[in-house]
Structure to design on (368 residues):
């Protein structure tokens, strides 16, 4: 872990972490399917000082998954949010089980350009057989095969981001050359189930490589910048953080906070009448903002940050912004992102060198 300041992320998909959160939402039902709804939540998170927002996604229609939700695509929402924010990082969830890595690479590189270097990527898997039918692909039921698709996909996406060197676009009026073709590269990837030649169709992202987040159980640690780790207690989270072997580690934490109208426990009980709060093996806090601040202080000894999953966004996000973030700031446990900085810089991650340019420099040095 790299320092005392906690990096705080918050998941903003749907109405909250509980499958029945929509019953306590403070907005009209049709507003959930507008990008402005997400932008408003992102503005609250940015003003509060969060480091990063994540946006969950999935290809299944409402009613086929355990937690049904109708949504606009995560990358599309992220692009809309990028245009209305200036400091907060934005990381959509994009599974690679059935998606084409070439297209994923282009979408995410474009998002990094749109956001001026504030984009990330949460890598997940599509586990439901119905997802394969939505893509028109054969079902991948084996966990090892799904992990292979994620591994190969992240590898391809990262290679494609480097397939343009930083100075490949020259725009030389004198020579009538827009590109230096010697600085575009074929990646020539061959995996177990597909091959990709490249290069990408989008220039290298401003960050060089977007910040890649995911579970080290699903994606090799060497391909991740940030591990998302779970555990039902502090000891389990600490063990997972030690085992992650990634530059940064964020713990998954679900929260149901006391509000002026009801305690967290009362709000959970109200929603449990309609559906159970899905157990995803994550640490869970139900209680006051002060107790959450104390828990986050304890977590700071084990992880670099936390991704919060609020029970109901319209209720919990306000408590987080009014009480939790200011208290953490007063204790110097969080640092607010600065204008003009990339997500990598905010997280304390270096901008990686282009692997093709680095290899060429090494080869040139060897010939001397």
């Amino acid at each position: 872990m790299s320092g005392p300041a906690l990096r705080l992320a918050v998941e903003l998909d749907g109405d909250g972490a509980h499958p029945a959160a929509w019953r306590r939402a403070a907005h009209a039902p049709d507003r959930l399917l507008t990008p402005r709804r997400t932008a408003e939540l992102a503005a609250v998170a940015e003003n509060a000082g969060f480091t990063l927002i994540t946006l969950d996604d999935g290809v299944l229609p409402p009613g086929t998954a355990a937690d049904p939700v109708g949504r606009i695509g995560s990358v599309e929402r992220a692009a809309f949010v990028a245009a209305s924010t200036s400091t907060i990082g934005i990381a959509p969830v994009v599974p690679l089980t059935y998606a084409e890595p070439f297209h994923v690479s282009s979408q995410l590189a474009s998002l990094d350009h749109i956001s001026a270097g504030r984009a990330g990527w949460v890598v997940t898997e599509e586990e439901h057989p119905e997802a394969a039918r939505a893509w028109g692909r054969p079902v991948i039921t084996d966990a090892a095969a799904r992990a292979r698709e994620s591994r190969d996909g992240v590898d391809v996406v990262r290679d494609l981001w480097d397939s343009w060197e930083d100075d490949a676009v020259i725009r030389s009026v004198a020579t009538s050359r827009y590109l230096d073709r010697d600085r575009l590269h074929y990646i020539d990837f061959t995996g177990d189930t597909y091959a990709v030649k490249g290069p990408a169709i989008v220039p290298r992202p401003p960050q060089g490589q977007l910040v890649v987040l995911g579970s080290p159980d699903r994606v090799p640690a060497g391909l991740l910048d940030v591990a998302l780790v779970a555990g039902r207690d502090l000891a389990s989270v600490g063990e997972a953080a030690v085992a992650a072997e990634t530059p940064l580690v964020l713990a998954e934490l679900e929260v149901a906070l006391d509000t002026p109208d009801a305690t967290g426990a009362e709000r959970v009980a109200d929603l449990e009448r309609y559906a159970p709060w899905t157990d995803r093996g994550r640490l869970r806090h139900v209680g006051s903002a002060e107790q959450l601040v104390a828990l986050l202080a304890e977590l700071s000894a084990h992880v670099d940050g936390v991704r919060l999953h609020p029970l109901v966004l319209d209720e919990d996000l306000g408590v987080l912004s009014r009480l939790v973030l200011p208290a953490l700031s007063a204790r110097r446990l969080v640092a607010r992102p600065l204008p003009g900085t990339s997500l990598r810089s905010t997280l304390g991650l270096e901008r990686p060198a282009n692997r093709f340019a680095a290899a060429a420099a090494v080869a040139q040095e060897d010939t001397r």
Q: What stands out?
A: The chain is about 35% helix and 15% strand. The chain has a mean pLDDT of 92. The first strand starts at residue 7 and ends at 11. The chain has one domain: 7-163+202-348.
